[in-house]
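This part of the workshop introduces the protein records we will be handling. To make this concrete, we reproduce a full record directly below.
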Amino acid sequence: MLNKTETIIPTTARVLAEGFVNDPMLAFLFPDFHTRVEALTNWFQLFVKDGCNRGTVTLAPADQGAIIWYPADVLIFDHNFDQLLSEVAIIVEKFGGLEAVSRFQQLGETIISTEPGPPHCEVFWLALLPQSRGQGLGGNLLQPVLQYADSHQVGCYLVASNPRSISFYEKHGFRQLSPLPIGDQLLLTGMWRDAQTSL
């Protein structure tokens, strides 16, 4: 776990931006590939800051990947998150215009309205650099979240934005909970993992 200092924000934001540069959801928001890394770096700086303040932010060794997650006692979508979204919307408009802001609002409303009710921890962002995939680093980043969920006997939730990541999460005990269509252009997948009990 990292110290919650300002120094980790730009590094983690850069790693997440590079890891998510070809993600369908973020390509939906930022269709211009030439400015997408810059847009995502600005975008993720806000999410990393919130993760440092209210959740957990962890970088993989050698900055090969990163995760932001929240424990069950944090109400993610509160007034702090409302403020975050207003700041994110400024970045979305700067890089994508008003049409991107409309897509962002649609996306946010869908994700927030389908948030599960039972107490749970939540994986908000998890990404690896393209060259670092397939080496077990994603599972290593995810492990503390699953250990927390099991030790506190709470579920774990996430929204998979890339169909290719679904099998990875299923391998770690998640199941597909619900499809989250965003118009006819994007399909996200809510995924849930029940707490495991040791025998």
